[in-house]
Amino acid sequence: SIGEPGRRTFRIIGSGEDGSAVVWVEKEQLLQLALAIQQYLANLPHIQGEEHSQEKAPNTTNPVHLEFKSERIAIGHLDNSDQIAIDFHEVQDVPRLRFSINPELLNMFAKEAIGVCAAGRPICQLCGEPIDIAGHVCPRSNGHRARDEGEILG
After folding, report:
1. CA distances from 88 to 7, 68, 109, 111 (A)
2. What is the pLDDT of residues 119-148, one digit of tens each?
3. What is the pTM of this model?
4. Can you tell me whether residue 11 is helix, strand or coil?
5. DSSP characters for 29-66?
6. CA distance 27 to 64
7. 95 Cα distance to chain centroid
8. CA gyration radius for the chain?
9. Sheet strand arrangement including 72-77
10. Residue 104 per-residue DSSP state
């Protein structure tokens, strides 16, 4: 993440033999991706005895560098491989980028992403929205005013 809590932007950086990519995502997208990865890996059958054949992008003499904001993300398993694919879509139904990664590294990514998301502002127990440093006007308490810490309601 880059920036102060409440104003952070999140990016996923990947690189390989043919280049690198930076994918910008919203905090909620990152958190949901990490949770989906953990669920996907928990339900993934153990692959034994299958050949490893990873889809390869064509070799280029000039490394490719992509940078874009992702609107949609999909997770899948590459056939005849132990690799998991994460597809990032810039616009509806047009995949812009595919990361393929082994399950162990993907699990480490998911854990780190959850940690990054959890390091932000605390969440209001009533409305589920982040609590701003300057105060929180909770819509569940009719949003009339911010509650001060230690205030007694009566």
Report:
1. 23, 9, 16, 19
2. 777 778 888 777 777 777 888 777 555 545
3. 0.70
4. strand
5. HHHHHHHHHHHHHHTPPPP-S-------PPP-SS-EEE
6. 26
7. 16
8. 20
9. 72-77, 84-91, 94-101
10. H
